[in-house]
Amino acid sequence: GAVVSQHPSWVICKSGTSVKIECRSLDFQATTMFWYRQFPKQSLMLMATSNEGSKATYEQGVEKDKFLINHASLTLSTLTVTSAHPEDSSFYICSAKAGGDNYGYTFGSGTRLTVV
Amino acid sequence: QKEVEQDPGPLSVPEGAIVSLNCTYSNSAFQYFMWYRQYSRKGPELLMYTYSSGNKEDGRFTAQVDKSSKYISLFIRDSQPSDSATYLCAMSPGGGNKLTFGTGTQLKVEL
């Protein structure tokens, strides 16, 4: 089945630094990738949708200059949290989808970010 | 009002029980319905999916969609401790649009 690899699985960084999270589709071409944020015991909150070669579409209230998304190839998307602060600490999850498949949303294993 | 409503639980049942998980929604454009299982600190994994109204069965799991009532269900028969997880319903209009998730129901199956 479709596999999405997300790295790192956890990261601790200092306030003010930037952190990059990678999301790779291993055995399919992901025309669309989604980035979510999840707080403890809460559902997934969609942050942005990215299509290969295009600028990401951010959900209302998500700062695009803070959460930089790059989807330069059909198998790789990255989320960079810039100038991280403790309130950015959360669980970030990516999802990748091949074109033409209405069910094929495959999720990565998530990245737990802790900003100290 | 949220587009998708789901009781967050927690729901605790004894091993072997039949579990019923439900979601209601308000957007009549939703055509594709999915159930995801998420273990703690892991990404969601697709469990069941259905299109429009109807039932679908896969092993111990049955998914039901009633579009007239805007209500979907997931039934788990002979529940096992390994079923303990958070179950998220998700839906979309199709065409590659984003998924809209419920809040998730935390399930615990006890020995």
Describe this structure in words.
The complex is a heterodimer of chains A (116) and B (111). With 116 residues, chain A is an all-beta fold. Helices cover 0% and strands 53% of the residues of chain A. Chain A has no helices and eleven strands. In chain A, the strands form two sheets. In chain A, strands 2, 4, 5, 6, 9, 10 and 11 form a seven-stranded mixed β-sheet that branches. In chain A, strands 1-3-8-7 form a four-stranded antiparallel β-sheet, with no helix packed on it. Chain A is globular, with a radius of gyration of 13 Å. With 111 residues, chain B is mostly beta strands. Chain B contains no helices and eleven strands. Chain B has strands spanning 4-6, 11-14, 19-25, 32-38, 45-51, 54-58, 61-66, 71-76, 85-92, 100-101, 105-110. In chain B, strands 2, 4, 5, 9, 10 and 11 form a six-stranded mixed β-sheet that branches. In chain B, β7 and β8 (71-76) form a beta hairpin. Chain B starts with a strand and ends with a strand. The mean pLDDT of chain B is 93. Chain A binds chain B through residues 4, 6, 31-32, 34, 41-44, 46, 49, 91, 93, 95, 97, 99-100, 102-103, 105-110, 112, and chain B through 6, 8, 31-32, 34, 36, 41-46, 49, 51, 88, 90, 92, 94-96, 98-99, 101-104, 106.
Short summary of the structure?
The complex is a heterodimer of chains A (116) and B (111). By secondary structure, chain A is mostly beta strands. Chain A has strands spanning 4-7, 10-13, 19-25, 32-38, 44-51, 57-58, 67-73, 76-81, 90-97, 105-107, 111-115.
